[in-house]
Amino acid sequence: MLRKIFTGAFVCMFLFQSFAAKRSRQELIPAGHWVYDELEEICVEAGIVNFADSAPLSIQELSLYMSEIDYSSLSTFSRAKYDRITQYFSENSISFDSDILSVGFEPSVNISAFYKDNDEIDWVFDRYERKPFIDVPVTISGGDWFSMNMDVCLGQNKGVSLHNDNYINVPFSADDMDINFPDTGYFSTGVMLTEKTGVGFHLGKGSRNIGRSLTGSMIWSEYLTGVSYAQIEAYAPDFKYTGHVSQFNVDRYMYTHQIEARLFKKFTFTALEGMFVNAPLELRFLNPWTIFHGMAPWREYEPDKSDPESHTCAYLGLKFQFVPVKNLKFYGNYAQTQYQTSYEMDNWPDNTTPNGIGYQLGTQFYIPLSKGRLKISAEGSWADPYLYVKESPNWTLVRTYDENIGDKAVFYEWIGSPFGPDTTSGEFTVGYEVPGKFSL
Prior knowledge:
Largest sheet: 18 strands, antiparallel
Order of helices and strands: HEEHEEHHEEEEEEEEEEEEEEHEEEEEE
Strand content: 35-45%
Radius of gyration: 23 Å
């Protein structure tokens, strides 16, 4: 069976190798992609920040941020990374073309082996890190006007990835296969209104992150997967607006809008307001420029109760980035689902609603060393016991789903930190890289 799969993959690559299409500028770069890592390193060396600490973003938007970088002032190390990104944006995929329309394929075969000697320890190289055995993203593009993508794959399902006796990513039986693909897919369109101002619209399914971090953003991390969404955005180098609606499960929607501003190319600040609602999609929350909290929607789903707080979860996210000098960056993320003010405590002394707050602070420091660069990163996080948690799991900020094959494993994924609430964590990393040769 595997021999036939390999043969078929290589035949398809041979048949289509004479057809090639350039990536559309509307193609989205998914959360967790290496492009964001390398762009961040380039910007920190250049001593600037931008809005590329959230994802997914289109090639069109990322190209705007890259246009601000003075290539001639970069080190040889960062020039190599800059060239790699621009080459990726302009590279051709295997495709079939008709006028400006193209259907592109990017097949890859990934074989991974892993081992642990203690069944009581969870996999570190887990389902988030493992790639499917065969991955074939399929993209339909209309020039630089729109792009549609679907990730077709042959791989193990998430339940099998939890098994202690699973040491390779190849599915050997039907029960091992992931039949719930694609996990990601989207439609993306947009246009540059001027040389430095663009707008975009995205409709899709997949991961998202708001604020980059070592362990997963406290506000919204890529560890929340399989969420369907619609998003509108307007962006320029120093200001950005994003309106977003996500569906976690049936009748469980998160409505958010956020504004971002940049000062002196050194400092960015982001404010996000959201309202999670356990009810069918509602038109009032689709208003792109309003204040959800002012609606007090928690009073309306159980009107017979006195001052209820049901079916909703108000959400606040704040973040910043600061690059005071070249090769040094500080960042912070703040998430809040509940905060009892002194006024509320004084006037409703019997109210025992707990606060739900989380903080995350980190820094990155780069040191040129020999022919490469030493990277030092440190991050600390703290989350209240009731961050993301409300009176009912139905309006708690967690997505639940299960597999419909094999052992039908059930999964829970928090909106932000993968560690969830009631957690104190920290991470310190040191790495060294010589571009094009090796990294440690």
